[in-house]
Model the fold of this input.
Amino acid sequence: MRMRTALLVVPLVGLAINVASSAERAVTIPPPTAASPAKTGTQTVILAGGCFWGVQAVYQHTKGVISAVSGYAGGEKQTAHYESVGTGRTGHAESVSVTFDPQQVSYGKILQIYFSVAHNPTELNYQGPDVGTQYRSAIFYADDEQKSFAKAYIAELDKAHVFPGPIVTQLEPLHGFYPAEDYHQDFAVLHPSYPYIVFNDLPKVDNLSKLFKSDYRETPVTVASSGKAGE
Done:
């Protein structure tokens, strides 16, 4: 993902692409057997799964999600900048802060979408074309309930052998989430013809619409509309 921003003005002209057949292939997985943690009010979980553009796009199209903000988690505040994180030496992972209404979408459903269409949880320290610990699969849990629920769900999926290999998603305590630069926010929404988005991220949104029809919304919730990026 290192050279993506240098190509922002490059359109895909006259290139026929079957979005559903390119890049990621979703895996149909069962929902968690346990009930999601019962809490009042909104909930937030920080999810890392490769380039944050695609993960953000998936949750922007998920019903019940109030905001999905691209950013960095796992490292210190002073190194939470794109160029620094790109070195792979900050401890950060490109992440997305997903705030949702549990009355509309459960934490379990958020994780089911995460493992099924948002990324490939069996790829260790890389995701598709992007390589490095900054692209690791990780759930930055806010409390012990989030941690234990995610841990149990991972164990269920591994036991059921729904993936060809073991899930390598790390469970890490959340010490801080730092929103990414403005030009990273709503990237897939604003640049749908950008080659990286076409090949790697639009297929994820397409998979969401097909595998999670009742949870998909056509009009995405954006950072620009929610005003969450700077919080």
About this structure: The longest strand covers residues 65-73. Confidence is low (pLDDT under 50) at residues 1-22. The longest helix spans residues 144-160.
